[in-house]
Design goal:
pyridoxal phosphate, transferase, eight-stranded mixed sheet, Aspartate Aminotransferase, domain 1, Aminotransferase class I/II-fold pyridoxal phosphate-dependent enzyme, DegT/StrS_aminotransferase, binds pyridoxal-5'-phosphate, globular, alpha/beta, transaminase activity, 379 residues
């Protein structure tokens, strides 16, 4: 079936508005460095999520890295991080030679478990080894339970970095995802809900810290005509061309959220008769973008495995994937401590039984019908 057109999990979906900003940049020869698109994209993202400021960067990973630098994280510091996430959430901890400790998910949101966080923080504080930051990830378009997580972090005065790479446009109570921690980060990688082909954003209420982020992201150049540097810097800014793509993409973000949620609703309605498929729950405290439709297969109700489904869909050129492999199970992090949700390892269970279904807004209804038919056939 190789000639069947491939259906992706989530591929770039242009609005048609991007080109005008790119053309403007070309016409004015502001191809580089930085320029109007970068400034405007920063303002537009800050205004969309309702926060004081934003710094456009070359990736979401760079944004996390700079957040850790601004929190002064260095060798042997401890940083807590959600375990169920993409590796980019935690790699910057190693860039700073700090030590990650991983925290399990709770079943209700699939995001960081307040129970596991509290246990970890209590134990580490008792040892006099309080973490210097907690990286909380909002998975697959849904916010974590910030009020509970923040109360625990506040009690120990530990700042939060909110990894909202997958949750731009989601809400927590009345607030936008990415604005709940000391820093928030977004990604515009090709698979995210909006893309600049590659890019990221660091947001915060603290404008002076964001100024420092700009400084570190442009090779930490001191104020001098000659090139002078007193600190270690990075080449992390976003290009003015790519920021132009981002400006065009941001204008259709709300429409994409509606489409993503419709894709989710269609799967959920069509597959409601299959008892063993349990979709990722949406919590009452927020609205998910449903960036990816994810579900888990209850092994008590079906012998069909996630790998059976992935293999079957692949024969029709349909992309699907397991849920993120938790970081505490990654060979890179095998030495790291891990705190589970009570006695259960929720993130490992979600990894073993969870699947991400094609959630591409480029997908036609006929294509989605076809996927649903294939899923019904397997079960
Ligand atoms: C995509 C992603 C990132 C990294 O973003 P890049 O822009 O690809 O560097 C970080 N965290 C999570 C949870 C992500 O999904």
């Amino acid at each position: 079936m190789a000639d069947r057109e491939r259906i992706y999990l989530s591929s770039p979906h242009m609005s048609g508005l991007e080109q005008q900003y790119i053309t403007e940049a070309f016409d004015s020869n502001w191809v580089a460095p930085l320029g109007k698109n970068v400034d405007s994209f920063e303002e537009e993202i800050a205004s969309y999520v309702g926060i004081a400021g934003a710094v456009a960067l070359s990736s979401g990973t760079a944004a996390i890295h700079l957040a850790l630098i601004l929190l002064d994280i260095s060798r042997d510091d401890i940083v807590f991080c959600s375990s169920l996430t993409f590796i980019a959430s935690a790699n910057p901890i190693l860039y700073q030679s700090a030590t990650p400790v991983f925290i399990d998910s709770e079943p209700d949101s699939w995001n960081m478990s307040p129970v596991a966080l509290e246990q970890a923080l209590t134990e580490y504080a008792a040892k006099g080894k309080k973490p210097k930051a907690v990286i909380i990830v909002n998975l697959y378009g849904q916010s974590a339970d910030y009020d509970r997580l923040k109360a625990i972090c506040d009690a120990y005065e530990v700042p939060i970095v909110e990894d909202a790479a997958e949750s731009l446009g989601a809400t927590y109570k009345q607030q936008m995802s990415g604005t709940l921690g000391k820093f928030g980060i977004f990604s515009f990688n090709g698979n995210k809900i909006i893309t600049t082909s590659g890019g990221g954003m660091l947001v915060s209420e603290d404008l002076s810290l964001l100024e420092k982020a700009r400084f570190y992201a442009t090779q930490a150049r001191d104020q001098a005509k000659h090139y002078q540097h007193s600190q270690l810097g990075y080449n992390y800014r976003l290009s003015n061309i790519l920021a132009g793509i981002g400006r065009g993409q941001l204008q259709i973000l709300n429409e994409r959220i509606v489409q993503k949620r419709n894709i989710f609703d269609y799967y959920q309605n069509e597959l409601s008769t299959i008892q063993s498929i349990q979709f990722m729950p949406e919590t009452s405290f927020g609205k998910s973008t449903r960036w990816l439709t994810t579900a888990w297969i209850d092994p008590k109700q079906s012998s069909v495995s996630v790998s059976d489904i992935i293999t079957h869909l692949e024969t029709y050129n349909i992309e699907s994937r397991p849920v993120w492999k938790p970081l505490h199970l990654q060979p890179l992090f095998q030495e790291c401590a891990y705190y589970t949700h009570q006695e259960q390892d929720i993130s490992a269970t979600l990894f073993n039984q969870g699947i991400c279904l094609p959630s591409d807004t480029n997908m036609s209804l006929q294509q989605q019908e076809f996927i649903v038919q294939q899923l019904k056939d397997i079960f």
